[in-house]
## 1
Amino acid sequence: MDLKNKILQTPTGKKLLSEYQLNLLTKNNIETLLDFHDAENQKLNKLLAIKLESVLEIKKELDMLPWQSETFVETVNELDFGTGIEELDKFLDSIAQPFRRGRVWEVCGQTGVGKTQLMYTLALNFVWKHKLQVLFIDTKQDFSTKRIQDMLLERKVDQETSEKAMADIHVVEVLTSEELIEVLKAFDQQMTDDVQAALKTKVVVVDSLAACFVDHRGREMRRTRDSLLTEVACRVRKLAVRGVAFVIGNISFSQDSGTF
C-alpha cells in the first residue's frame, strides 16, 4: 500500500488532506511511510499547509495502523527470546505475549521499585542464552558494571564466560532526547550497512526514557516534547519491524507529583 492510501486511513489525514496536498509529498520525494516519518515536522507543516499539531497527530495515527512490510524491512521471525525469568515467561505465555523479536515493552514504575534491576537481568539473560548482543542506552549515566559482575558471580561462571557476557552488553550514554534519536538512527543505518555488530544486536534497553526528557517538562514545552516523543516512537517502530526488541524504562507519577 502506498503512502497516500496509508495517510488516508488516518482520521486526521482523511479529514485535512486533499489529493493535491498528498501529491505534493511525492513531488518532494516523500514516497514511503519512513520518508514521511523522517521528514522534519516543520517541513511537512509548510508543505501541506496544516498545523504542526496536525502533522504530529498524523504521524501518531500512522503508528497505530497495522504494520506493513516495505522494501527495506526484514521479515521478523516469530522466534521467542524469553526473559530467562521462569515465572515471568509462564505469565507472558499465558497471555500470548512472550518476549520475542520486534516486541516493544515499556517498564513503568516509581523511583526505587526495581526497574533498572529488571532491565539488567533481562539484558544479561539475553546475552547469556542467545550469544547475541544488547544495546544498553544509559540516559542516567549510572550504568553499574559491578552490578552485572555481581550477577555473574552469583551464577558461578568462569572468567572467560563472564568477560564475553560483559562485552556483549554494549553501553552507550546519552544525555538528551536528541542524542537518543541520533543513537537509534545510527544503529538503524548500521543494520542497513550490514555492520556485523549491529546485526547481532537484537535487544535495545533504554534506562530510562524520562531522564532524557527532563529539559522538556511543563506545559510550555508540550509541543517540543510531543514532537521528540513522536520521533523516538518512529525510530523504535522502524527497528522493531526489523526484528529488534525494546525494553524501555519509564517513570510513573502520582497525581499530586506535578506535570511532566
Note: Confidence is low (pLDDT under 50) at residues 68-78.
## 2
Amino acid sequence: MSGHLSLDEEVRLYATNAEREKYSLLATLFGIIVALDYLERAYIRDALTADEYSPACTRLLSQYMTMLKLVKDSVPSIEQFMAHYRMDTPAALHRIKVGVPATVEHSSEAG
C-alpha cells in the first residue's frame, strides 16, 4: 500500500479558503435556522413574551435573508438545504415561509 491512513490525522472539509468560507456560511445558516426553530417553540410554549419574541424573530429572519443571499449558489431552496442536512425544524420553516414574526402574522389576520 502506498498511502498510509492515520487515525490521528484531521480530516478537512475544504481544500481552499473559498471552500472554507462556503462551509462557514452554510454552518451559520444552519445555526440561524436552529435558533429560529427554538425561538418559535419557546414562544408557542409561552416561555417568551411577545415583546421578547418579536425583535428576536425579526432579527433572525433578517439574518436568514442576508445569509441566503451569501449562499445562493450552494442553496437552491431552503427545503433542499434542510433535507440535505436532515434538519427537523418545521417551526422555523413555517416562520421563514411566512417571513414575519407570529405576532405580526396573527395581528394582520385578526384585523
Note: The chain has a mean pLDDT of 91.
## 3
Amino acid sequence: MEEVAVSGTILSLKSRNKQQFFQVHYKLSFYKLARYR
C-alpha cells in the first residue's frame, strides 16, 4: 500500500509540470525502445 501512496504523491507533484513530465517520459520510453531493438 505504501508504494501506491508514494506513486500517487509523485503523480500529484508531477501533474503540476505535466507537459514537462510527459515530454521526459516519452523521450525516456523512446530511448529505451531504441536501445533494446
Note: Residues 2-36 form one domain.
## 4
Amino acid sequence: MSTEKKSEILLVGLGAIGTIYAYVLQASGLANVTVVARSNYDVAKGSGIHIKSLKFGNHPGWKPDNVVASIAEAATKQYDYVIVTTKLVPELLTTPQLLEPFLTAPYIDSFEQPVYVLAQNGLEIEQDLYDAVAALGKTPKILPCALQIGCSLVDNVVEHLTGENIIIGFHRPNDYLTATNTADEQATLDDLTNILKTGGSDARGVPDIPRYKFHKNVGNCTLVSTTVLTGYFLSAFLRQPPTNEGDYTEYLHPRNKDKVEQYTIAEFKGLVKENLDVAKAIGFPSTADCLPPTMADDTIATMRGMFANPAVKDGLMTSTQRDCASNLPMEVEVILGSVVRLAEKFQVDIPRIRMAYAMILVKQNQIFRLKGVKA
C-alpha cells in the first residue's frame, strides 16, 4: 500500500464544472478534497449529486470527501491548491474579496499561501489576486486555466457528455508571450496535472497559458455577443428545418433565410476575426490547435455539423444567455470588457465587439437594478 502523502485541495464552487472536477480530483486517489458548496450545501452533505457523464460514468448520490458552507469555514488548515470554479462578476465580487479568509489573519499567521487555480471564464482575471498575495510578502502562484467542457446542473443532476480538457499555466504579470516554464513552475504543473489525469481528465500544463485562454475566450466572446443580443442559440441561424416534424423546433426559417445567411453569419465571422486581430497585435502565434486563421469558418462548420444531428434537441443555451434570461448577473467584463480593454491597449479597432459590449452593459445594468444591487 502506498504511503505517499495526498495533496490537500480546496475547490470553491459546486456547480456543474465544480462537481465534475471535484469528482475527478477525488477519483484520482491522490488528493483529499474539500468543497465549498454554498447554495447546494445541504444536498452535497445529504443525498449527494447525481453525475451522469459519458466520460466519467454514472454516479448517483456522489459526495465530496468533505463539504463546508463557506470559505471561512475551510480556511483552517494548509492547502496545496485552492481551485476556484465560480462565476466571476468582478463588479459585484472580486477574487481577493471571495478568498479574503486566505489573505488575512488568522490564516496568514498560521499557514503558507496555497497555489491558486482559477478555473474560470474570461481574460485578465488573475492580476488582482496576484497583487493581493504579493502584498503579503509572499511569492504568488496563480494558475489560470482554459477549460473545454460542456455540462449542466439541473435539479441536483450534473449532465456531461464526452468532451473535456483543461489547460493550465502560470500567470506572469504583463507577460503574454513567455514560452518556457522555470523548473519550479513545471514541477507544480506536473503535480497538478498528474492528479487530474489520474482522475480521468484530459489535463496538460503549458508555459504560454495566455494564448490558450485567449483562444477559449474567442468562442465565449462570440457566442455571448450573439446569444445574449438575439436571445437565441446558434441553432436559430445555422440549423436547417427538420426532416421529421417534431425532431426539434428551433431552426432557420425559410422566409428570410437568405438575409440571415448573408448578414448574420458574416457578422458572426466578423466577431471572430476581430478577436483574432487582437490576438495578432498581442503577438500570439497562430497554430492549428490554437488561434488558427480559419477559426471563424471552423466554428461555423462545427456548429453546422452538430445541428445536422437530429438527436441534438432544442434548449441549448450559453450560460451567459441563461443568466440574462433569468435576470442574473453576467460575466460581461471578463469575457467582453477584457477584449475591449486589450484592444485599446494594443490599438486594435474592434467595432463589432465594442458594440456588443456596449449593448450588453445596459442589460447588465438593469439586472443590477432589478436585483437591488447597491451603488
Note: The mean pLDDT is 96.
